[in-house]
Amino acid sequence: MALPLIIDTDPGVDDAIAIWLALAAPEIDVLGLSIVFGNGHAAPCAENAVRILDAAGRSRVPVHIGADQPLQRTYARTGWGVHGADGLGGIGLPAASRKADDADAVAWMAQLLKAAAPSSITLAPIGPLTNIARLLQRHPDARQGIKEMIVMGGAAAPGGGNATPHAEYNFWLDPHAADIVCASGVPLTLVTIETARPVSATPARIARIEAAGTKIAKAVADLLRAYVHEAKADALFDPLVVAYLLRPGLFMKTHAHFRVETGESRELGRLIVQPGSTPTPHTLLQAPDPDTIFDFLAERFRHLP
Ligand SMILES: [Ca+2]
Questions:
Q1: CA 15 / ligand 1 centre spacing (Å)
Q2: Which DSSP string do the residues of 123-188 spell out, in sequence order?
Q3: Less Cβ around it within 10 Å: N or C end of the chain?
């Protein structure tokens, strides 16, 4: 049976690639996308989510809009920054074929999880953790349906952040939500900045994806080129969450205890990792071999339109 998966997302260039990788995988059943602010506000992120589904011929996968603000801080971003004029690299993906579905993302997730078999649904949060923190706080009885979460977020090394010297962007946008999720006791595996940084989209690796020859492979290559140009950086973040679900053996793991700095200081949003000797609910992923990851992506993107 395919793994039932909810992707909590703020598309976003690397979100698009992660979603396509999940949709291409026969091992994964994408139950739907829950949308959170992050790379942009939630409403335009939801539009982008539908455009991503449309491009893969999967327009009917549910899309539910959730938080547009962090739990305690204020989000007032305009524009898409490194994600291009439309948040999807300006590569010409058509306008969304439909609007998002009606129900709020947190209520939708809660309903699914309460009705699910125990520990059966995996969550892949690849934006700020606001929706997930709300889910755990408002719907304690939904927890029974969660198998585990694979999260993109956090910078563990001092000075290794990309939002501030200490904080990764997703954790920095809503550090309070990130800390609630880390403290929840739900099994949590982290793709941090350090996990992702060596997995860089070099021109040769992008060309290997493009050579897969499908429309989506071409779109992924175009997205990566646009992103590398805008960001002056080239690490592949969000797709590693899905790559881990599909090929866990490509990643070395360490057990640890995570918490997140929430005090108003220059370290706000910093991921604090303490080694865990006994089994803990927290797992830290080490960086995989970049060429193996890109070859895997290229192989998988043969299986979409
Ligand atoms: Ca994201």
A1: 5
A2: EEE-S-SHHHHHHHHH-GGGGGGEEEEEEE----STT--SSSSS--HHHHH-HHHHHHHHHT-S-E
A3: N
